[in-house]
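Recap from last week: sequence in, structure out.
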Amino acid sequence: MYAELFDILTKEEQRNEDFKKWQVDNLPEFNHNILTQRSPWYIYDNVVGWKFEGDIDSKTWKEVKDWPGYYAPNKRTKAGKEMQERILKARGHRFNRLGFFEIFKTTTPVYGQPFTIPIGFIYENAIYMVFDDGNYNDIKKNCAGMYTEITHGEWNELIDNNGGMNDGM
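Predicted structure tokens:
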């Protein structure tokens, strides 16, 4: 299970790094300032808009509503649709966090009932997973001896002692 999780999380990290490089190499006048939105389904945030220096091609880009200075592909034009396709292709296939339920052999959420999607990441070669208490009994039963449970206070202390661990998460 560790190898499977490590492989998935490592591939997601590489995809994210590749996408960062693609942005720098392929977006004209990109000034490394992006607007992101927390994704409920994916490990890394969704990019909503980019900030550029210089003139903006209005056939390719339009300003993001409520975020002056940030631009997204203008999907109403051919050039904007082509840019959106290039961005999606560069982003590549992403791991859906619902897959963690399958890996841990826990109860898959039922449509219409509230649930929390697990969060997973690697930090200093250790895998950290955050689960809602609703999945705790399945994990305890199916993964006995494969994890260490910590309290919320220990989790906060771990984060505080390691500079926040907030590199793109």
